[in-house]
Amino acid sequence: MVGSKLFLIFLLVIEYCGCANILYVIPFTSKSHYIMLRPIGLELARRGHNVTVITAFREADHPPNYHEVIVDDKEIWDVTGGKRPNVFTMVEISAEDFHDKILWGGGYGFTEVALNSTEVKKFLARDHKFDLVICEQFFQEALYILAHKYQAPLALVTTFGNCMRHNIVIRNPLQLATVTAEFLDLKEPESFVGRVRNWYFTVYEYLWWKYWFLPKNEELVKKYVPNLKEPVPSLFEMQRNASLILINSHFSFDPPTAYLPNVVEVGGLHLSRSDGHLPMDLQKILDDSKHGVVYVNFGSNVRSSELPLEKKNAFLNVFKQLKQTVLWKWEDENFENKPDNLVIRKWMPQKEILAHPNIKVFLSHGGLIGTQEAIFNGVPIIGIPIYADQYNNLLQAQDIGFGKILPYHDINESTLRHLVNDVINNDYYRNKAKEVSRRFKDRPLSALDTAMFWIEYVIRNRGAEFMKNPARDLNWFAYTMFDVYAFVFVCAAVVIYIVIKLISALLQFLGSNEDLGKKKKN
Ligand SMILES: *[C@@H]1O[C@H](CO)[C@@H](O)[C@H](O)[C@H]1NC(C)=O
Q1: Across 335-384, where does the E strand assignment appear?
Q2: Which atom in ligand 1 lies closest to the alpha carbon of residue 69?
Q3: Distance CA 161, CA 163 (A)
Q4: So where are the chain's domains?
Q5: Which of 57, 95, 250, 94 is nearest to 160 (CA)?
Q6: For 403, which DSSP code?
Q7: So what's the pLDDT on residue 16?
Q8: For 101-107, what is the mean pLDDT?
Q9: Mind listing the pLDDT tens digit for each residue in 482-515?
Q10: Nearest-atom index, ligand 1, CA of 14
Q11: Residue with CA nearest ligand 1 atom 11
């Protein structure tokens, strides 16, 4: 009796909150991606939705309406074949090489690992109904087909900012003069050379992506997701019809850009709700450092212990002369000649560390997640970019004024000492960091609540067809107005031609009259 009453209340609650069945597809096994993507699934579940997550990460403690379908845990190097390289060597790599050697192969490999995982195969073989499919947009387009399989609207989420691949497909303006490809490092993006480079890279990426990478993803669909309802849309079409794209940027830090209503900035989403706290030992170290703390962490993929000896020594020689405590994420247990003011840990609760008021500066590789954590907490950055979007994030921080870039090849004792002392002792950086922090948080809704609003909006409006750009259905010359400009050009050319002809005829006429007059006089 009590049970059935409870069940009735349960049904009422479901009715009341308009709870939906949501499939959340984030199988990419990179920890830094998961840090941003994790709160979306958990928060949807907390709000009462029935959430099924295809993921590589198991949550220790999750609500009962949060279901995990776990993919095989593989590292990118297992998938691309070969050994994990020393990540510091990737400083040299061009944006094109980064795509050729890592992203395309890694993306394809990960997508196949996900589709071929035991739990995923079992899940796909059963019958399910979903009201929305949310996929990460990161070189795993084959998974978009799940939205077609379940005949549900598709929402996308990216762990980085504005990018060509979503803009071009949903017909958001590309804005290449100010929006730099996310993995391209340009010293002066708005100069002529910078814009040519950006244009060239965008064309390169687009052609390879559309005509080589997407077809390879289509093969994965055929192989692993058979028996789809005909006609099966192409993956390009799937993305074109995405109802919503959540991107990890915010105009208070990233360059302001034009967005369609279904492209929504949710930068800093993982910082919206704080649930963590510092472990006791670190809390004490940070509290007791009365001169402040220098925090060093080159991210989850880069291992500090792979630093070449002369660079490691440069760091150590500078650090040991500081009166500040230095907290360094160092993955190796052995550390010879460790200075007294240096504290090493294999892993750092970064979000909580950066929130501590004694942090003076963050020495970082400039990954977006860490950069946003520094922004959120108003901490100045010294950035050593290694690969991917790191250079762009740091350039933005440097332009705004709360960060300094130290190119990897320039690391030596004197550059490092100069920069560290400058950033610690000059209030300019800290003030700028505080200013950006304040404006980063100054929003009508927190980033996470913004994401929730728009996801639920798309569910309420069954895909919100009306939000999508009608220009998606135009061909490229209608969309770019090329036909109209060509027409105007031809009309103008005809008019100019006629005017020239008339004038020359007139001149000829006048000339021959003059000749006639001259002849008469003679
Ligand atoms: C929630 O989703 C799971 C699939 O992961 C499904 O088996 C279950 O029936 C769903 N529950 C409700 C109440 O729809």
Answers
A1: 342-345, 359-364, 381-383
A2: 5
A3: 6
A4: 18-272+446-473, 280-441, 474-507
A5: 250
A6: E
A7: 53
A8: 88
A9: 999 999 999 999 999 999 999 999 999 988 877 6
A10: 13
A11: 50
**DSSP-assigned beta bridge partners for residue 135:** 25, 156
Residue type, 398: Q
- Residue 140, both tokens: 């795993």
DSSP codes of every residue in 265-313: E-TTGGGSS------HHHHHHHHH-TT-EEEEE-TTTS-GGGS-HHHHH
Q: Is the CB of 123 under 6 A from ligand 1?
A: no
Model pLDDT for residues 171-226, shown as the tens digit of each residue: 999 999 999 998 898 889 999 999 999 999 999 999 999 999 999 999 999 999 99
Q: Which residues of 368-404 are buried (b: 16+ CB within 10 A; e: fewer)?
A: bbbbbbbbbbbbbbbbbbbbbbbbbbbbbbeeeebbb
CA 65 to ligand 1: nearest atom: 1
Tell me the three state secondary structure of residue 110. Answer: helix
CATH topology of domain 280-441: Rossmann fold (3.40.50)
Q: Which of 186, 164, 161, 184 has its CA nearest to residue 175?
A: 164
52 lines ligand 1 (CB under 6 A): yes
Answer yes or no: is the C-beta of 50 below 6 A from any ligand 1 atom.
yes
Q: Ligand 1: distance of its center to the CA of 110 in Å?
A: 26
Question: Could you read off the pLDDT of 9-68 as tens digits, one per residue?
Answer: 555 555 556 799 999 999 998 888 999 999 999 999 999 999 999 999 999 999 999 999
- Same topology for domains 18-272+446-473 and 280-441, yes or no? yes
Q: Which two tokens stand for residue 247?
A: 């991107």
> What letter does residue 381 receive in the DSSP assignment?
E
| Residue among 133, 148, 62, 41 at smallest CA distance from 451 | 41
Q: Give 117's pLDDT tier (boundaries 50, 70, 90).
A: very high
Ligand 1 binding pocket includes 51 (Cβ within 6 Å): no
Tell me which CATH code domain 18-272+446-473 carries. 3.40.50.2000
Q: Is the peptide bond before 233 cis (omega within 30 degrees of 0)?
A: no
Q: Per residue in 58-79, pLDDT tens?
A: 999 999 999 999 998 777 777 7
Which of 12, 13, 50 should be mutated for ligand 1, with most atoms under 8 A from CB?
A: 50
Longest dimension (CA), the chain: 128
- pLDDT tens string 429-483: 999 999 999 999 999 999 999 999 999 999 999 999 999 999 999 999 999 999 9
d(CA 239, ligand 1 centre) in Å: 26
